[in-house]
């Protein structure tokens, strides 16, 4: 099985979106460079700095599936049936959106109603040896607390938002220490960091859960 990594662009004060799920300036780095990066959506072409473009391509090339929550799925409208990064999506939900499924019969989406752990297992089945990306927020927090994460990838943006949706939401632990970054790439208006999840982080979560 491939690794399970929570990923998001994040402000300096730890937020991944505003309270209304809009992202402010958090994605500016996707359009501030000279390197053109195409996506599976012909309407969306990214323009990144060379370091960010190389980091992005390596990340996307290694992905096999994405796990997200119902809130993000609804907010994006299910990405019109195909996520921008072009991988299958596993949605954690209490109820399958049958109308959407019927309207998008060929969409590579899977809806899991029995919890995050089952969703990650489904994503790993789909991804095989490739990486499973977990969106930040409640889903990432639950994965961390359940010991399902191998690493946390942060695209750190030099902006202070003041309030919004934090990367992990409200933790059930006092803290969950991660390892020192195993990747650090300096882009334009963004720093790409990857932190391994240590055994002590998992033990801390289990001890407080």
Q: Indicate the overall shape.
A: globular
Parts with pLDDT < 50 across at least 5 consecutive residues = none
Strand neighbour order, sheet with most strands? 7-6-5-8-1-9-12-11
CATH topology: Dihydrofolate Reductase, subunit A
The CATH architecture can be given as 3-Layer(aba) Sandwich
**What level of helicity do the residues show?**
25-40%
| Computed Rg | 17 Å
Question: Describe it for me?
Answer:
- With 209 residues, this protein is an alpha/beta fold.
- An 8-stranded mixed β-sheet has the order 7-6-5-8-1-9-12-11, sandwiched between helices. A two-stranded antiparallel ribbon has the order 2-10. Strands 3-4 form a two-stranded antiparallel ribbon.
- It has helices at 50-61, 70-76, 98-103, 116-127, 138-145, 199-208; strands at residues 4-11, 15-17, 35-38, 45-48, 63-69, 89-92, 109-112, 131-135, 151-157, 165-166, 183-186, 191-196.
- The mean pLDDT is 94.
- Strand 11 (183-186) and strand 12 form a beta hairpin.
- The longest helix has 12 residues, at 50-61.
Summarize the structure in short.
The protein is α/β, with parallel strands linked by helices and 209 residues long. Helices cover 26% and strands 28% of the residues. It has a single domain, classed as Dihydrofolate Reductase, subunit A (3-Layer(aba) Sandwich), CATH 3.40.430.
